[in-house]
Specification:
Elements: E1 10-18, E2 24-28, E3 35-43, E4 51-52, E5 56-65, E6 71-80, E7 87-90, E8 93-105, E9 109-117
Length: 119
């Protein structure tokens, strides 16, 4: 019996930014990957060594796709800082944008992680 192993191609991005109440992080990503996951970890320090759980705040995840010159929202693109969730979407983005729409209280920096895959 033959066993088939499929190699999955994955693209991973990490980028951090200081939280200012209106911080916006734009990540240029590889549009060849159609499935994306975006997560955020919060920190008290610029070295990203002390993770924290914020008391409050909201982030919005939006995308600029290869099909449009207009920034678009995604279905589960709102992330509550106190209980961060994973945003996911299907599409071919040129950019993923994470915006602090309500100031995050209890953290000074955020690390945004975006993973695109082919499967």
């Amino acid at each position: 019996m033959a066993v088939e192993k499929k190699l999955r191609q994955v693209s991973v991005y990490f980028e951090s930014i200081e939280l200012t109440g209106t911080a916006e992080l734009t990540m240029d990503v590889d549009f060849n990957f159609p499935h994306w996951f975006v997560g955020v970890t919060f920190f008290s320090d610029a070295e990203l060594t002390t993770p924290v759980t914020p008391a409050s705040g909201t982030l919005d995840v939006t995308v600029l796709t290869a099909m449009s010159d207009v920034v678009q929202g995604i279905d589960n693109g709102t992330i509550a800082a106190a209980t961060p969730t994973l945003a996911s979407f299907d599409g071919n983005p040129d950019q993923i944008i994470v915006t602090e729409t309500v100031g995050v209280v209890g953290a000074n920096f955020m690390l945004v992680k975006a993973v695109g895959n082919m499967a």
